[in-house]
């Protein structure tokens, strides 16, 4: 349960919505129970009055009050159910946003090595099924459990008021056992199965994606059938384990319902005794058994939710592990920056986790406003150094720097519009700002001729742009960012020499007053510099 805590804390950040949503579910449940109980009472009353009249005894019945109450609860049940669905699903979508934002915030800091530890299919599974199982935690698990407990207590109180304390205690005891069977009982019997199931499903998804990705190679090697047969076996295991878990959930649901029905039969039997003793009228007698039957609705969702709790905990554990692995680089011995210094590295070690250090005892001081170029051949460690400056790789040693913006060597664009991609650099930028920066990177004309202009869709990872265009969009995004320190890793990849020279010249003005560290293979791939250092291994 420790694993669920960070996500529960996140969910509890909207207490008002959770209480309101819970109230709407409660109102729906109580309307349903009241509808059943009053209908039962009314049917019994009319039957008894009918019998009396048939026997020639004068009897009257008030049709209007119970008739009105039945209509009221029939309508309120429908209205509350509708409002509950709309409101709570809206809440779930808001929670989904919170969870995704928290997760992306954590994962955006993931080191390159951690990112590459997981396959694409595993990331897909983290961001879809793992997140889904957490965002419905409130609606599937927390609210139904709390409300089933609350409504059970109300029904037991009803038993104490209408019947007697003894009946109420016995009904309470049976309901408690039913509650435990439908919740903790299911969880204990399915948690391993359910947690393993989510791992197996992830493994199957990964295997299917790999099968599709490697289809050409499998076909060339004549192994498609054999590989597919392996997948089928894996899928069969997943479904048979699922069937096993579902059967357990089903038995617990049946057990809980059986107990609730037995408590209704018991209430009827106890009611007859009170009726015979003259302490209870016939119509009131049926109120409690029928309310108990109505209570079954509150228990229906519990076994399924608790049967999947094991998988939910497994999802939370995986996401927590990824977020922990993605904690921002811890700078052992962080220091305060001296005045007029933009970056200070003293005796730092640059290394990828599990690999030998690339640099030891690395020293660098960059003055505020300085333009530093770092040159080195392929594999000399430029990107690793840039990652360290940007805080993506931990700097082991004394390290401090100003707030920075980082242009990674690999161009990263999102499947969205040009505007949305640019606004990541400066969310408050106006259209005029965006056009002006596009002008500087020589893309204004290109997008002005598009029908959607700034709203042009860039495609998956900017696939509708050429490599050089995509690079310039990424560069524009960095140039829009107000951070005082700019780290540029191979800023002009994919640009021809003339374009590169023109943009580099303009960048001098655009980056005026900022500190710039640019890394590249050769001097012609750098914007203007005051100082250049060479990396040698
Ligand atoms: N995630 C990683 N895990 C382990 N080793 C890595 C990782 N990334 C890079 N390296 C290794 O670190 C060394 C430096 O790589 P880096 O990408 O920093 O060099 P670079 O100078 O930027 O190269 P290039 O100019 O080709 O991009 C290489 O030997 C590379 O194999």
From TrEMBL:
Localization: Cell membrane
Pfam families: ABC_membrane, ABC_tran
Membrane topology: Multi-pass membrane protein
Subcellular location, principal: membrane
Domain ABC transporter as annotated: residue spans: 343-537
InterPro entries for the chain: AAA+_ATPase, ABC1_TM_dom, ABC1_TM_sf, ABC_CydC/D, ABC_transporter-like_ATP-bd, ABC_transporter-like_CS, P-loop_NTPase, Type_1_exporter
Keywords assigned by UniProt, alphabetized: ATP-binding, Membrane, Nucleotide-binding, Transmembrane, Transmembrane helix
Record bears the keyword ATP-binding: yes
Residue intervals of the ABC transmembrane type-1 domain: 19-311
SMART domains hit by this protein: AAA
Transmembrane segments: 21-43, 49-74, 141-163, 169-188, 258-278, 284-302
Signal peptide boundaries: none
Name assigned to this protein: Thiol reductant ABC exporter subunit CydC
Organism name: Marinobacter metalliresistant
Gene: cydC
């Amino acid at each position: 349960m420790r694993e669920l805590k960070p996500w529960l804390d996140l969910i509890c950040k909207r207490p008002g919505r959770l209480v309101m949503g819970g109230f709407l579910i409660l109102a729906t449940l109580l309307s349903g129970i009241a509808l059943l109980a009053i209908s039962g009472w009314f049917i019994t009353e009319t039957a008894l009055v009918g019998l009396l009249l048939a026997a020639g005894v004068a009897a009257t019945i008030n049709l209007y009050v119970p008739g009105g109450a039945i209509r009221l609860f029939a309508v309120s049940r429908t209205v509350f159910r509708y409002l509950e669905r709309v409101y709570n699903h809206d809440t779930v979508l808001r929670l989904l946003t919170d969870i995704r934002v928290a997760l992306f915030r954590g994962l955006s800091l993931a080191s390159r090595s951690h990112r590459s530890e997981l396959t694409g299919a595993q990331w897909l599974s983290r961001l879809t099924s793992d997140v889904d199982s957490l965002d419905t935690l409130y609606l599937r698990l927390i609210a139904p459990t709390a409300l089933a407990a609350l409504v059970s207590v109300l029904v037991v109180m009803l038993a104490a008021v209408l019947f007697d304390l003894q009946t109420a205690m016995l009904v309470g005891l049976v309901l408690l056992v039913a509650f435990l069977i439908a919740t903790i009982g299911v969880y204990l019997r399915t948690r391993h199965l359910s947690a393993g199931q989510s791992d197996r499903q992830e493994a199957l998804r990964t295997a299917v994606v790999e099968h599709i990705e490697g289809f050409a190679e499998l076909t060339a090697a004549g192994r498609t059938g054999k590989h597919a047969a392996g997948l089928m076996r894996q899928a069969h295991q997943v479904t048979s384990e699922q069937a096993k878990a579902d059967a357990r959930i089903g038995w617990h649901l049946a057990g809980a319902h059986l107990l609730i029905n037995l408590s209704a039969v018991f209430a009827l039997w106890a009611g007859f005794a009170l009726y015979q003793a003259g302490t209870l009228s016939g119509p009131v007698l049926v109120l409690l058994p029928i309310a108990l039957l109505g209570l079954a609705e509150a228990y229906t969702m519990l076994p399924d939710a608790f049967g999947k709790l094991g998988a939910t905990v497994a999802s939370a554990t995986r996401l927590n592990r990824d977020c922990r692995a993605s904690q921002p680089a811890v700078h052992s011995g962080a220091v305060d920056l001296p005045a007029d210094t933009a970056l200070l590295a003293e005796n730092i070690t640059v290394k990828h986790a599990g690999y030998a250090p690339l640099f030891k005892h690395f020293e660098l001081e960059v003055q505020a406003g300085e333009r530093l170029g770092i040159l080195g051949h392929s594999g000399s460690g430029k990107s690793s150094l840039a990652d360290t400056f940007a805080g993506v790789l931990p700097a082991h040693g004394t390290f401090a720097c100003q707030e920075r913006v980082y242009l990674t060597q690999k161009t990263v664009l999102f499947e969205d519009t040009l505007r949305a991609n640019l606004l990541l650099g400066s969310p408050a930028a106006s259209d005029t700002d965006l056009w002006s920066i596009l002008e500087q990177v020589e893309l204004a004309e290109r997008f002005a001729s598009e029908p959607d202009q700034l709203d042009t869709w860039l495609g998956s990872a900017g696939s509708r742009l050429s490599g050089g265009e995509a690079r310039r969009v990424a560069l524009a995004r960095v140039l829009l960012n107000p951070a005082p320190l700019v780290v540029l890793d191979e800023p002009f990849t994919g640009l021809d020499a003339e374009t590169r020279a023109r943009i580099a010249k303009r960048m001098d003005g655009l980056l005026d007053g900022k500190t710039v560290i640019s890394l590249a293979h050769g001097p012609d791939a750098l914007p203007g510099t005051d100082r250049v250092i060479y990396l040698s291994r």
